[in-house]
C-alpha cells in the first residue's frame, strides 16, 4: 500500500509502497478515512535527530497521528467490534498497565522511556496510508459522524481541550478573558472549545490576518501583532489582564507576550513546541500567575471532544488531500498557506 514515510532525519517525508499492516493480538486494522497533518510532524522531520527530540522518533515510520477510519479486520483476541464501524484513534500508546495508562493518560505513561514508540504516527506506523493497525483500547466510536472531518480532533482537538480543561479554574467566575496565540490547526479549534465550554471572552492573535478572520468567524475578538499589541489586549480586559493564555507557537516573543498580559492568578499554557525560553523575576510577574507546558490529552477527554463534535459545537475546518498529494499538504502547512487543517483521505 502507499504511505507517507518519515524516512530519514532532517528531510521531508516520502511517498512510497510499504507492507499492509497485520493487526497483532488486541489490535484492529482500520481502513483509513482521514489522517491530519500536524505541525509537530514538521518538527519530527526538520528538527529532530539522534541527539534532539524523543529517542522513540527514530525513522523510518509512517506519519499521521490524527487518524480516523473504519474497522477492516479484527486481530487475535478482539471481538465485539463490527467491521465497517467508524472510529477516531486516540494516538498515544503507553504500556497499558501503569497508573497513568490505567486512567487513560497514555501521554504520561510511567514506562514511556522503555516503550519503543510514543503513538501511532510517532515512532510506530501512523495513518497516512491506506491502512493502520492500532490497539483496540485506543478506539473512540464516531457513530454516524463524518470520520474525515473528525480526524484532526485526535490531536488538534484533544490537545487544546486538555489544556483548556486544566485552565477552567482560572476562567470561572464571570467577566473572564482567554487569549489564543497562533490560529492554525490547534488554535482554531481552541477558539471553538473556549466558546463552547467557558463563558470567557476569547481574544485571538496570529501573524496571518486570514487566520485571524477565521477566528473572528468563530466568535473571537482579534488583536494584530505589533508594538501596541500587549496594551490593546490589556485594554480589552478592562486592565485586569488575561485569565488563561494558550500559546500555540511557543517561541520567545509569544511566551513574553503571554506573560506580559496574564492576570493575577492567571495561567499561561505553552502548547507550541517552538522551544522558546522565558526568564522569571518575582517583581515582574503578576502574583500567582502560572506558566506551564502540556502534552496531548487523555482518552476520556477525547470522548468528550467527540461529544462536542457530534453536538455541532466543534466544527473542524479541513482541507482534504489525496494520498498522492500528501506531500503538498505538508508543503502548504509549512508555508502557512492552509485555510483549514490538512487531512489526507486515501
Ligand atoms: P499550524 O502551522 O497549523 O499553526 C500555527 C499558527 O501559528 C499559524 O497560523 C501561524 O501563522 C501562527 N504563528 C506562527 N508564528 C507566530 C507568531 N510569532 N505569533 C503569532 N502567530 C504565529 O500548527 P499546529 O498544527 O496548529 O501546531 C501548533 C503548535 O502546537 C506547533 O508547535 C505544534 O508542534 C504544537 N503541538 C503541540 C502539541 C502538544 O501536545 N503540546 C500537540 C500538537 C501540536
Ligand atoms: Zn503506561
Automatic annotation (TrEMBL):
<dbReference type="InterPro" id="IPR036291">
    <property type="entry name" value="NAD(P)-bd_dom_sf"/>
</dbReference>
<dbReference type="Pfam" id="PF00107">
    <property type="entry name" value="ADH_zinc_N"/>
</dbReference>
<keyword id="KW-0862">Zinc</keyword>
<keyword id="KW-0560">Oxidoreductase</keyword>
<dbReference type="GO" id="GO:0016491">
    <property type="term" value="F:oxidoreductase activity"/>
</dbReference>
<dbReference type="GO" id="GO:0008270">
    <property type="term" value="F:zinc ion binding"/>
</dbReference>
<protein>
    <submittedName>
        <fullName>Alcohol dehydrogenase, propanol-preferring</fullName>
    </submittedName>
</protein>
<dbReference type="InterPro" id="IPR013149">
    <property type="entry name" value="ADH-like_C"/>
</dbReference>
<comment type="similarity">
    <text>Belongs to the zinc-containing alcohol dehydrogenase family.</text>
</comment>
<dbReference type="InterPro" id="IPR020843">
    <property type="entry name" value="ER"/>
</dbReference>
<dbReference type="InterPro" id="IPR011032">
    <property type="entry name" value="GroES-like_sf"/>
</dbReference>
<feature type="domain" description="Enoyl reductase (ER)">
    <location>
        <begin position="10"/>
        <end position="344"/>
    </location>
</feature>
<dbReference type="InterPro" id="IPR013154">
    <property type="entry name" value="ADH-like_N"/>
</dbReference>
<keyword id="KW-0479">Metal-binding</keyword>
<dbReference type="InterPro" id="IPR050129">
    <property type="entry name" value="Zn_alcohol_dh"/>
</dbReference>
<dbReference type="Pfam" id="PF08240">
    <property type="entry name" value="ADH_N"/>
</dbReference>
<dbReference type="InterPro" id="IPR002328">
    <property type="entry name" value="ADH_Zn_CS"/>
</dbReference>
Amino acid at each position: 500500500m502507499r504511505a507517507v514515510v518519515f524516512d530519514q532525519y532532517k528531510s521531508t517525508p516520502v511517498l512510497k509502497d510499504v507492507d499492509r499492516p497485520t493487526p497483532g493480538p488486541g489490535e484492529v486494522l482500520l481502513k483509513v478515512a482521514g489522517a491530519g497533518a500536524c505541525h509537530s510532524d514538521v518538527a519530527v522531520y526538520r528538527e529532530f535527530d539522534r541527539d534532539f527530540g524523543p529517542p522513540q522518533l527514530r525513522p523510518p515510520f509512517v506519519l499521521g497521528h490524527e487518524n480516523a477510519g473504519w474497522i477492516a479486520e479484527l486481530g487475535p483476541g478482539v471481538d465485539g467490534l463490527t467491521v465497517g464501524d467508524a472510529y477516531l484513534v486516540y494516538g498515544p500508546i503507553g504500556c497499558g498497565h501503569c497508573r497513568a495508562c490505567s486512567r487513560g493518560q497514555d501521554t504520561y505513561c510511567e514506562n514511556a522511556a522503555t516503550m519503543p514508540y510514543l503513538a501511532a504516527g510517532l515512532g510506530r506506523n501512523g495513518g497516512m496510508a491506506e491502512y493502520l493497525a492500532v490497539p483496540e483500547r485506543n478506539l473512540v466510536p464516531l457513530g454516524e459522524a463524518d470520520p474525515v472531518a473528525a480526524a484532526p480532533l485526535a490531536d488538534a482537538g484533544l490537545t487544546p481541550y486538555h489544556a483548556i480543561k486544566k485552565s477552567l479554574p482560572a476562567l470561572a467566575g464571570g467577566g473572564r478573558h482567554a487569549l489564543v496565540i497562533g490560529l492554525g490547526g490547534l488554535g482554531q479549534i481552541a477558539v471553538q472549545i473556549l466558546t463552547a465550554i467557558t463563558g470567557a471572552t476569547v481574544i485571538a492573535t496570529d501573524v496571518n490576518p486570514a487566520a485571524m478572520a477565521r477566528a473572528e468567524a468563530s466568535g473571537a475578538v482579534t488583536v494584530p501583532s505589533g508594538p501596541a499589541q500587549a496594551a490593546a489586549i490589556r485594554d480589552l480586559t478592562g486592565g485586569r489582564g488575561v485569565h488563561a493564555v494558550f500559546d500555540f507557537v511557543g517561541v520567545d516573543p509569544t511566551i513574553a507576550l503571554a506573560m506580559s498580559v496574564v492576570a493575577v492568578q492567571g495561567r499561561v499554557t505553552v502548547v507550541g513546541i517552538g522551544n522558546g525560553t522565558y526568564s522569571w523575576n518575582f517583581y515582574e510577574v503578576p502574583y500567582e500567575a502560572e506558566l506551564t507546558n502540556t502534552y496531548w490529552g487523555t482518552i476520556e477527554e477525547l470522548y468528550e471532544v467527540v461529544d462536542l463534535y457530534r453536538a455541532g459545537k466543534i466544527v473542524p475546518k479541513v482541507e482534504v488531500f489525496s494520498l498522492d498529494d500528501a506531500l503538498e499538504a505538508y508543503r502548504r502547512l509549512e508555508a502557512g498557506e492552509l485555510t483549514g487543517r490538512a487531512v489526507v483521505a486515501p
